[in-house]
Amino acid sequence: MTRTNNIVVFSDTHCGCRLGLCPPDGVPLDDGGNYSPSALQLKVWGIYEEFRIWTKKVTKGEPWDLVMNGDALDGVHHRAVTQISHNLKDQLACAVYALGPFVKECKRSGGRYYHIRGTEAHVGPSAQEEERLAEHLGAEPNETGQFARWELWKRVGSGKGHLCHFLHHIGTTGSQAYESTAVHKELVESFVEAGRWGDEAPQVIVRSHRHRHFETRIAHKDGYAIATVTPAWQLKTPFTYRIPGSRLAQPQFGGVLIRAGDEELHTRFFVRRIERAKEE
Fold first, then answer.
1. Helix, strand or coil for residue 131?
2. For 73, which DSSP code?
3. Which of 30, 94, 99, 201 is the most exposed, fewest CB within 10 Å of its CB?
4. What residues are paired with 28 via a beta bridge?
5. How many helical (H) and strand (E) elements, i.e. helices and strands, does the chain have?
6. pTM of this structure
7. Is 144 helix (H, G, I), strand (E, B) or coil?
8. CB 262 within 8 A of CB 13
9. What is the pLDDT of residues 51-77, one digit of tens each?
10. Domain limits of the chain?
11. Other CB atoms within 10 A of residue 223 CB
């Protein structure tokens, strides 16, 4: 068992989409061409670099583990035409160029990299494309040898530590007034399920998928029990302009730190947005 005081979580980079995370030098394509990122993608990349600097600051020079919590690739889905290429080799190259340096920074700190499987519509049946990417990036395999796993149980902090659970999916809502419902429900259900079987309940659960950061917490014998949802790294796609709760909102970019400090467990989050469209 490996233990750390810091776990950094990010997700939903959707590399391979013209609205997803893309390195500034672009992506070499299988036929010898090259995809160059848009002006907005370059702006998002600037935020991504800021997030990586933030990670080094808030982990205070200590080792930190890194968790990609799913949907690293965009895939070929829902008859969408926003991909840089429908050749998944090209999308894999984009993800390797974008995520590889962050993974190396994690390992240089003395930490480990973990990869969670996302949505099959994006990353293939049984998340096979995410498995290829995770192996390429050197993710820690689980007990069955999967480099990308459906869930991760991991402790943070010394001694007994604090149990955390990572999984990609979480319910969504069409109204920001009810943004807390699915998140708080997931936390409560984790306690119910653990209680049914006499298992230890997680003190922190991390979810992604909805591309918006949200967090809820309740009193706990060790401080707080926390449910947190990561933001994403994808600009608004054509689908979001028709979804209630999303069509008026600006996309959020960033990640979450879970840290076991000297006195208590806590989370910190990095969330940025791009300004809305200019007036005409």
1. helix
2. B
3. 30
4. 34
5. 5, 13
6. 0.96
7. coil
8. no
9. 999 999 999 999 999 999 999 999 999
10. 12-273
11. 15
Residue pLDDT, tens place only, 214-267: 999 999 998 899 999 999 999 999 888 888 878 888 999 999 999 998 778 999
- CATH number for the domain whose boundaries are 12-273: 3.60.21
C-alpha–C-alpha distance, residues 2 and 190, integer Å = 23
Please spell the DSSP secondary structure of 3-32, one letter per residue: -BSEEEEE----BTBTTS---TT-EE-TTS
CA distances from 99 to 15, 21, 64, 70, 136 (A): 9, 9, 16, 13, 11
Q: How far is CA 234 from CA 12, 75, 190, 273, in A?
A: 7, 13, 29, 11
Per the listing, tokens 């600097």 go with 53
Q: Which two tokens stand for residue 202?
A: 């997680």
Instruction: Identify each DSSP E strand in 11-132 by its residue range.
Output: 27-28, 34-35, 65-68, 113-116
| Three-state DSSP class for residue 178 | helix
